[in-house]
Amino acid sequence: MPSKAGQAPPILDFSAFYGNNAAAKQKLVNDVRDCCLHNGFFQITGHSVPLELQGRIMNWNKKFFDLPLEEKVKVGKDTTNTWNRGYEVLRSQILEPGTLPELKEGFYIGDEISTSHPYFINKKLNLGPNIWPNTSTLPDVGDFKATALEYYTKVVALAKDILKVLALTLDQKESWFDDFTDGAVATMRLLHYRTQPPDSPQKLTRGIGAHTDFGTITLLLQDKVAGLQVYDHATKEWLDVKPTTGALVVNLGNLMMRWSNDRYISNLHRVINVSGEERYSIPVFFSGNPDFVVECMPNCRKEGEEAKYKPITVEQAVLGGYADSYGRAEKFKKDAAEAARMSVAVAAPEVKAA
């Protein structure tokens, strides 16, 4: 059932993609198209990521963030490497301008590439080896690495299947995105959201601020605690995306919007955790081949009509999004530190000459 104005993103049975029932598959394509035209969000069940694996990676998500801060920062992405892998401390990002640094901490994981990989050598899209907790000093992390990479691999494969369906929704062959997905980059992010304090300024405090995703599609695994909200432009209200056991939330990113010349929506979403409980989630951001040039699809504009966006590489688009959001947080911290320094200076008593 496709979503309607004022209704949360629907749950679609993706198993039709793998079956032999042509009518069921066409219905799936039609429903996905309706969701993309409305708000770019839907949930899927009947996919290829086992429920048991979802449970294992979510358990490791919680175990990792339960580690003492001094252990987590040993695998910090800003202290151990320059390619965006490892632990990210609380309040590192501001995705929504005008809000406070966000009440989330994260752990970045990607494809397990070596320092001899061309992507690392050429510094493509901040790509490099993953950074893992040391099992000799932290035996409790056990098979964290193996589980994370197993889940990552399964979700990336599913993302490619979803892109086949998206190609059909845009009246292209299933294989239309194959060149784009060859050598594709994806980033998995384990996330832990603290509950917002009751006295926090509601208009400024976010688990994660209102934003659109930088890449092509995102697949999100939620735990049982809600908090994700999607903006409905028709009703001008925020809709809750209720966690559903076994389901993955799928949403379009900015590159898909560029590709479709705004026919499809890369929609605003945010996390506000006022549940009183800790929230955990695991998004996988599928970007694509870093060197692939994204430009308007041939059937997404009328003859003689100009494309709304200039061609751009995947790398340029994604890095631009990162620079903006992390830059806001750094500016906020510097401004706050300067304000504190000035406050101390003003409050200090005058020292008179002897």
Describe this structure in words.
- With 354 residues, the protein is of the alpha+beta class.
- It has a single domain, classed as B-lactam Antibiotic, Isopenicillin N Synthase, Chain (Jelly Rolls).
- Helix content is 31%, strand content 19%.
- The chain has an eight-stranded mixed β-sheet with strand order 1-2-10-7-12-5-4-3, sandwiched between helices. Strands 6-11-8-9 form a four-stranded antiparallel β-sheet, with no helix packed on it.
- Strand 1, helix 1 and strand 2 form a beta-alpha-beta unit.
- Helix 2 packs across helix 5.
- It starts with 10 loop residues before the first strand and ends in a 7-residue tail after the last helix.
- About 1% of the residues have low confidence.
